[in-house]
Write a structure and sequence with these properties.
This protein is about 80% helix and about 0% strand. It is mainly alpha-helical. The protein is elongated.
């Protein structure tokens, strides 16, 4: 399904915002007194960061291919 340039730019903006929030969440959780208690949440956030990073790269590729 083809997406417009505007749709891709908006998706990239939204993902970038979410990535920033997830990175802050990881820093906060890892900075807690006992971060081992938050290990599942940290792991989940890191996996989401990786998935959103991949999505950003793919969106970037799509934008490069647009005329």
């Amino acid at each position: 399904m083809p997406y417009s340039k505007q749709e891709l730019l908006e998706a990239r903006r939204q993902i970038s915002s979410t990535l920033h929030k997830l990175e802050e969440t990881v820093r906060t959780l890892e900075g807690k007194e006992n971060p081992a208690r938050c290990k599942p949440q940290i792991t989940l956030a890191k996996r989401r960061i990786r998935a959103f990073t991949i999505a950003m790269e793919l969106i970037g590729r799509e934008l490069q291919q647009l005329p």
